[in-house]
Structure formats: C-alpha cells, structure tokens
Amino acid sequence: xxKHIEHIGVAVDNIEEALKTFExxxxxxxxxxxxxxxxxxxxxxxxxxxxxxELLEATNKDSPIAKFLKTNKTGFHHIAFxxxxxxxxxxxxxxxxxxxxHEAPKSGADNKQIAFLHPKSTQGxxxxxxxxxxx
Length: 135
Ligand code: ZN
Description:
The protein is an alpha+beta fold. It has 3 helices and 8 strands.
C-alpha cells in the first residue's frame, strides 16, 4: 500500500546555501544532515507537516545528482512515496509493467529502504518508494 508523500527531493549546488532559503521558507530547521556514500549525495531534511523536503548535493562527479545538474537546473528532482512493504510494491509495479531503476530495495538516507522507478514509466517524474527500516 502506498501511504503518503514522504518527501520531495530537490537537487541543489550547495546544501548550506539552499538551507538558508528553505529554513526561512518553511520556518523550520533541518533535523538531519547525512551523507549517503553509495549514492554520492549529501542530504538535508526539513519537515513540512507530515512530509519533508530533502535537499540533495553531489559529493562527487559520478553522483546521480552531479549527472542531473549537468543537464538540468537546480530544483525538483524526485517525489518519494512511503509504502508499508517496499518488496511487495516493487513486485506489484514490475508486474504492472513499470520500469524499475532498482530491482531490490537499497539503503537510503533517513533510516529508509529505498528504490527508484524510471521516469519513462511514470510520466517523466523520478519516483522513489521508501519504507522505514525495521530492526
Ligand atoms: Zn529521496
């Protein structure tokens, strides 16, 4: 089951600079900054009610964010939906013909298991599915 919009991912050149804007805009401080080495990203999260804004800065030139910023301006990057069972949802969507970027969930920022769907099968939007990690 898809539960709600967990966060919106925003690609930025510089997280500290971007935080100056978003912390004022949302009248809230970032509650977490985290580097995800496997993805080559530095992230910062700011709460917006039930959802969050995730700022993403590349940590190296091979990072998906560095590649994105080569052909796009900073701004909207992906939308993340919280699901109750990421394995079940990936299987369901694959069976429905969705193109998966990740066939199996991987470890993401903010204590989540994540997987991305290809924009080709989601009307041009990069979609992330995420599920809280369970111990
Ligand atoms: Zn995300």
